[in-house]
Each structure stands twice: as structure tokens, then as C-alpha cells.
Amino acid sequence: MLFFKTFIFNFIMNNIEYRALFGLISILFLRVFGLFMLLPVLTIHGIEIHYATNKLVGIAVGIYGLIQSIFQIPFSFLSDKYGYKKFIIIGLIIFVIGNLIACYKNSIWNIIIGRAIQGLGAITSPSMALLSDLLDEKNRMKSLGFMGIVFGAGFSISMFLGPFIVNLFGIQSLFIIASFLGFLSILIAIFIVPCPNKHILNRDVSIVKTGIYKIFFNLNLFRLNFSIFCLHIILMFNFITFPILLNNFGFLKSNYWKLYFFMVIISFICSVPVIIYLESKRHTKIFFKITIVMLFVAEILLYFSINNFILSLLSMQLFFIFFNIKEFLLPFLLSYFAPIGYRGTAIGIFSTYQFFGSFLGSFFSGIILNNFNLKIVFFISCILIFFWFLLILHMKEPIFFTNIRFVLSKNVLNSKSFINFLINQPGIIEVLFFKKENTIHFKIDDKIINKISLKKIIINYLK
């Protein structure tokens, strides 16, 4: 905690904000690590578990995504109503129970049931909403972005550490470790994460019922939702097939973690400069298409590399590099395409597509491998990417505006002259207010006006 406080945001946060950010990102990291370190392991060692078939291994990998996609939005609504911290703790208890069931017997059915139970505790949205309640507006967006970095770090570390642990202690040790991490997260939630004094609905992180229809039928958002859906189908296709491909070349299972480690490091080194460039230059439309083309190239190469070990490794590396870039690019675009006041709803639906894609990819790869060979999986990936590219072919470049929210009194929000005054200010593109929440949302051109100057304009008007 002291290290964190010294080196992260030392000059802008009070003690409650430090506790909130440290506690919630620790919970997120431990949970993500506990969940995903099983992912490469099941695809490597899953067939060795009692009663396992390729089909059941696919279900065991993906069942978490199916349950999460079903319960994410209801869990978010309930946490909005009854309290974020309570539901984070409930979600973590569910996570621990799922792990204990999975490690009870060395049976694929126990793992399937345990993974399904884990999916019930969808705590990502409540965690983001609680962080939003506990942090000052000036720290909020940077902290939410930091949570995204932690999520990616947890996933990347679990990729190679999971197989390493299994080589030493066996597959059931992962569930025991994940249970311990879940219990540790519960203690962090109880004793470190503060309780908010009051809850103000933040539409940037919360799902709003009235916005679901609006988001579902937004063409630009549908393109992004379908993109994350396809991306995670292909990710699961590859996770299931890569170990089989390596095994066919006689690659030792005890060395898989080393291979994944180097691939993660190389992917990080190659993708970070591209991500920095995209964030600064914002040439997203062309890069969006390039990444899809490169994923197609990776799958084509995998199709033809069945008998070529070096080409297989290069193809796998190519996939991981452009998967990382795509995984950054999609949420980045989502934040700009989301309608003002409904960003949280857009994120919730986006995540639902993502989890459901993970389930379908795992489920169908197991079925395909039960009846066909590896090449069919890569061939289907190519077809899917082709239709994906057709869908986004006419996607427009997003307009890079910034969304800002202020909490004001009802008397101010009822003033038509005040709203008209704001709309006519240079740099303000759109204004939307919600009287029940006492909030006003702006879409602004930050090259003309920023949050500080907008706040001064509002204060001067209200004097």
C-alpha cells in the first residue's frame, strides 16, 4: 500500500481514494489471475482429467463466459439498487465456492459446475461503479483506465504462470490457489475498500435500463460489439487448438509455460508502441481494418502450418500481437462511439458480447475437434474474419470528442436559459441533462474547451 501510495497518483488523491483504488484494483487483479490461469492449463491438460472429452473441455473453458454474459447486466442492476460493496463481496464469495467445487474431485464435471458458478459473480461493473462513487471527478477516468491495465496484466501473467504452477503441483492446485486469492480479495473488500457516503448514478460506468434498446440498435456500436464477439470466438478457437498443434510437433507440455511467457513478452513489446501511436494520432479506422486483415493472415498461416513447427510459432506470435492491439482498440473506439450519458450501458452490452463469444468459441472448438481436425477450426476462423471485415468495411472514423459530467442542483437544470447558454458555447457539441440524477452531461471538443474552463463558465453564469 505504501509503495502504491508513493508512486501512483501521489499528488492528487486523498486517503479514501488511495484505499478505494488500491483495494479495487487488487481485487480485480487477484480475481482475473485466479480465473484465467486455468485457461491455458485446461487446453493443455484438460483431456487428462476424468471423463474429459474435447467437447467437455471446450464447455469447461467457456461455461464461465456463458453464465457471465447472462448475469452481468442483472448483477449490475442489483448492485446499483442494494449497494456495490455488498455485491462485490457476494460475487467474491461465489467465486470461492466455485473454485472449491472445481477442486473437490479430479472430474471434468466438477470443473464445469465450478466454472459455471464462478460466472454468477460478475463484479467488474460494480467495481467500476464503486470506484466512480469513491473518487473525485478529476481522478476518475485515469483510475478507470488504470483498472484496464491491471486487467490486462492479470490476464498476461496468468497465461504463463498457470502452466508453470500445474507442472509443479497439478491442476487441482490452481483451484486451491484461486480460492485463497478469492478469500484474500474478500478481506481486502471488507477492511480496505471504503463505503461511499452517498451514491450518485454515474452513467459512464453504470448500466441504465432505458439505454439498453438505444445501444442495441446503434449501428456503430453493433460493429464494435460484433468485433469483440468474433475476436473472442477466435481467441478461444486458438486457445483450444494451440496445445494440440504443439503436441503434434512433440513439444513437451512442461515447456508450454516458457513458450507462452516469451510470446506474451514479445506481444507486449510489439503492441505497446502501436497502442501509444494510436492513442496520440488516432488513425483508428485504417488500423481497425489492418488488425482484422493481420488476424486473417495469422489464421491462414496457421491453416497451412500444420506440418511446419517454425511457421506455427510465427503464426501464433502474429495472432497474439494483433489480438493485443485489437483488445485495446475496441474499448478505445467504444468510448467515442457511445452516446452521451450511456457509456456505461454501452460497456455492459459490449462485455456481454465478449463473454458470449468466449463461450461459443470454446464450445464449438470442442465439437469441431471431436469430429474433424485442426485445419477445420482455422478454416472457420478465416470465414468468420472475412464476414467480420465486410461488416466494418464502411465504418466511419469516430469523432474524437470528450464526455464530461457535472452534478448540479435541480433548480439550475430546470432553467431553459442556462441550457441554451451552454449549448451556444464554443466547443460544446452536445448537452444532455437528467433531472432525477441532478447531472448534466457534455460532449466537448477538447481542442477548443476543456473541463476546467467549462466549469469556470458554469460558475460565472450561476453567480
TrEMBL record:
Keyword Transmembrane helix in record: yes
GO cellular component, one term: plasma membrane
Superkingdom of the organism of origin: Bacteria
Keyword tags: Cell membrane, Membrane, Transmembrane, Transmembrane helix, Transport
Topological category with respect to the lipid bilayer: Multi-pass membrane protein
Pfam families given in the database record: MFS_1
GO molecular function annotation: transmembrane transporter activity
All residue ranges annotated as the Major facilitator superfamily (MFS) profile domain in the record: 20-400
Keyword Ligase set for record: no
Entry's transmembrane regions: 20-44, 56-75, 87-104, 144-165, 171-193, 224-245, 257-279, 286-306, 318-338, 350-370, 376-395
Protein's cellular compartments: Cell membrane
Name by which UniProt lists this protein: Putative major facilitator superfamily transport protein YajR
Organismal lineage: Bacteria, Pseudomonadati, Pseudomonadota, Gammaproteobacteria, Enterobacterales
